[in-house]
Amino acid sequence: MSEKMENPTENEQINTEKNASIVQRLASVMLNYLKDSTDIVNEYKDTLNQYKDNPFTFYAESDIINFKIELENPIKLPRYYSLMVFGAELSVNTIEIKGHNIIFYFSEKSEIDKYIIGLDNEKLPIMDLILLVYVFQNMSYNDHGKYSLNLKDYDESIRQEKTMIMEILRNNGIETEKIENE
Questions:
Q1: 86 and 134 share a domain?
Q2: Spatial contact of 117 and 132, defined as CB atoms under 8 Å apart
Q3: Structural domain range at position 36
Q4: Residues 76-110: pLDDT tens digits?
């Protein structure tokens, strides 16, 4: 009875070659996954950098309308958006309206403490439009109320002053063209 004896060195060599082949395939698969993920990040970044017609375009003659709202609860920005645009995960804790500029202040300490979007531009990058819509959409009802009340106070004060000025002019014989809301 003879038993076939296998050479242990030969078995080790075959196993090593099989393992090397598997490791090579795994490395290839892992690198392809990394490439695919990187492509997705780059596509997302390209989308954020596209310019679109600004649906909120307006020009403020001056910074007369100027107020700041500290949000009840900071609004955490979407993670990957925040990392791509600002280089850190950020939350907006304050919004300032200054003429045609909207200024977002961030809660976290980072290289950037605020971000300004000028709404007097005909086109805006999608990254700015997302920030605008996302923050306003996620404000609490109380924050929406504060925002609206600030603007309502400005509207009423300006209308009252305009009416008074127009009346002074008329009372002194100065005629003006009829302007809406007079």
A1: yes
A2: yes
A3: 15-49
A4: 999 999 999 999 999 999 999 999 999 999 998 87
What's the Cα-to-Cα distance from 170 to each of 70, 104, 158, 165, 180, rounded to whole Å? 42, 43, 18, 9, 16
pLDDT in tens, 19-46: 667 767 788 888 999 999 999 999 999 9
Residue whose pair of structure tokens reads 């961030």 in the numeric block: 106
Q: Please give the full DSSP string across the chain, using - where no structure is assigned.
A: --PPPPPHHHHHHHHHHHHHHHHHHHHHHHHHHHHHHHHHHHHHHHHHH-EEE-TT----SSS-SEEEEEEEEEEEPPHHHHHHHHSS--EEEEEEEETTEEEEEESS-SS-SEEEEETT-SEEEHHHHHHHHHHHHTS-HHHHHHHHHHHHHHHHHHHHHHHHHHHHHHHTT------TT-
Note whether 80 and 26 are same-domain residues.
Answer: no
- Residues 45, 86, single domain; the answer is no
Supply the pLDDT for residue 150: 96
35/81 same-domain check: no
Nearest-angstrom CA–CA distance, 83 and 176: 54
**Could you tell me if residue 30 is inside a domain?**
yes
**Count of domains observed in the chain:** 2
Q: Are residues 139 and 75 in the same domain?
A: yes
In terms of domains, do 70 and 151 share one? yes
Give a yes or no: residue 43 inside a domain: yes
